[in-house]
Amino acid sequence: MSVSLILIPAALAAAAVIQARAGGGGGASTVCTVSTRMRDSVLLSAALRETGAVVTAGDDVVDAAWQGVESRFTRGADGIWTAHFRGDVDESRAVEIVRRLDVAYGRQVQAAVVERLRDRALAAGLRLESETVADDAAVRLVFAVEREDRA
Known about the structure:
Elements lengths: L1 E8 H14 L6 E7 L4 H10 L3 E4 L3 E6 L2 E7 L5 E7 L3 H31 L4 E8 L5 E7 L6
Parallel strand pairs: 1-2
Antiparallel strand pairs: 1-6, 3-4, 4-5, 5-6, 7-8
């Protein structure tokens, strides 16, 4: 059995669902359309590893393997990622994998943004005073102004 999931930005999700319904869905594999915020292949690979996948990544192809399930993520010219699952997987398991992947991807994006803020703070005249992580994984950074630019 194989399952293909088309991963698209949320703004395009409604149009894709309408197109999928209009297409009739004939074919050997099941296709599901899933909203996603995934764009960066490095963060996608890191998120896949966080879900326990063994990952092999190229420019526009990322292969992932879990116990009994393999997936190939391909990115088209339009930036839309499509995940093709095969092995011991059905539609509900594929959707669950993508949900877990989306959560892991969100954590990777958050970590990258926090790191970028830390790296750029000094150049912006800021000093990191404190950093706290809440129970819901929200990160709070408090910066102090080191210098004032006078025009």
